[in-house]
Write a structure and sequence with these properties.
With 305 residues, this protein is an alpha/beta fold. Helices cover 28% and strands 28% of the residues. It folds into two domains: 2-113 and 275-304, Rossmann fold; 118-271, Dihydrodipicolinate Reductase, domain 2. The strands form two sheets. Strands 8-9-10-7-11-12-13-14 form an eight-stranded mixed β-sheet. Strands 3-2-1-4-5-6 form a six-stranded parallel β-sheet, with helices on both faces. Helix 3 links the parallel strand 4 and strand 5 (81-84). The model has no long low-confidence stretch (mean pLDDT 96).
């Protein structure tokens, strides 16, 4: 199997290492400037060269603001694509991309690695079992002080701080939006939201957002995203008629509580290794690519409206 990886930052390097672990060694890097690499992989500088290479699929892991021009070329040439989130960084780009998808026959998926987190897999099973009873509401929270994210660089120079580079919490922390939809279904009716800048931690991107909507099952969903929380928190609550479910994605735990906050049961995933999510999603994508009957956990471009 032959794979082209576009972009060789930290996430691109992670994907390359996992491809090698999966037994794939015919890997070509597409970079703005071919600088050589410690793995001795072939490098190209222009996406047009991918046509001659004719890979089995292409991983898009360059900066978000470059995704559209990259995807436009790949879709027009019918390549199979595995693209990092967020897919695009503006509604205008999405409208343009939709016009291309009507003629596209490739296998395209978006990388949402948290779908492969053991907590999310377990919660998905719990919801399907109806053990919580009728779900009434859910609250998702993620927050981390932006200057603490990458202590070795000026946070104001990072893509997160710049709207034009695809920064801002709505795009940068889109995992929570995806998890909510993955677990509880798509919003129905009007979505109420506010995304704005209330501090000096970004240059011009939104540093906080609140999103509220109702699902087709009349569940109220609230999603909070911010660059402001001192420390780091990533958790969610799903409240059912029988129990509350508390999931902490940093501690890798799930707790059931009932009347008077009584703890009913706890699930712990002490052996969780972060890279397992990325390895498993690559393996899942490849299974879907090679076996049309295999249903991957990853959403397609068509599901990203």
């Amino acid at each position: 199997m032959k794979v082209v990886v576009i972009g060789y930052g930290s996430i691109g390097k992670r994907h390359v290492k996992n491809l090698i672990s999966l037994g794939i060694h015919d890997i070509i890097l597409c970079r703005k400037k071919a600088k050589g690499n410690d793995l001795g992989l072939l490098e190209i500088e222009n996406v047009e060269e991918i046509i001659k290479i004719n890979p089995d699929f292409v991983i898009v892991s360059n900066p978000t603001f470059l995704h559209f021009q990259t995807l436009e070329f790949l879709i027009q040439n019918q390549f199979n694509i595995l693209c990092e989130k967020p897919l695009l960084h503006s509604p205008e780009e999405w409208n343009l991309l939709k016009s291309l998808l009507g003629h596209y026959n490739g296998f395209s998926k978006i990388i949402f690695n948290l779908r492969y987190h053991p907590c999310i897999i377990k919660v998905k099973e719990i919801i399907a079992s109806e053990e919580l009873g009728k779900i009434n509401f859910a609250r998702f929270f993620v927050g981390q002080y932006l200057p603490d994210w990458r202590p070795d660089i000026n946070h104001l120079e990072s893509y997160s701080a710049k709207k034009g580079m695809g920064g801002g919490v709505v795009l940068d922390l889109v995992h929570e939006i995806d998890i909510a939809e993955y677990l509880l279904g798509q919003p129905q009716g009007k979505i109420h939201s506010i995304a704005t800048k209330v501090s000096d931690v970004t240059e011009d991107s939104n540093d906080i957002a609140e999103i509220i909507y109702q699902t087709s099952n009349n569940e109220i969903v609230n999603i909070h995203l911010d660059y402001l929380y001192r420390g780091f928190a990533r958790n969610f609550l799903i409240s059912g008629k029988e129990y509350n479910l508390h999931c902490d994605l940093l501690e890798n735990t799930i707790q059931f509580t009932g009347n008077q906050n009584k703890q009913i049961k706890t699930f712990e995933f002490k052996d969780f290794v972060r890279n397992d999510m990325y390895y498993n999603l690559l393996e899942d994508y490849i299974k879907g690519l090679t076996n049309p009957e295999h249903q991957t956990k990853l959403p397609s471009f068509y599901e990203n409206e």
